[in-house]
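sanity check both lines:
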Amino acid sequence: MMNRATEIVAKADAVLVVGTSIQVYPAASLLDCAPLGVPIYMVNPDRQAADGHRAKLSGVYVLPASEGVLVWAEEMRKKFG
């Protein structure tokens, strides 16, 4: 499914990474497929999960997925209506 995932990310308006450390390849390489300037957000309760990727990330939510996705979604609603 990597080919399909690459196609989806390459057309994304935003990318949300949930509950992964972005350390396992080839899935971790998906961040590199996002178009330049597309915001990339991460939700992960492990503060160190974003280490090594912070320059690519527009925001990090140090929360469990069940909470962080809701916080992220609410912020996006406020920002983009």
Summary: The chain is about 30% helix and 15% strand. The beta strands are 15-18, 40-43, 59-61. The helical segments are 2-10, 65-80. The mean pLDDT is 92.
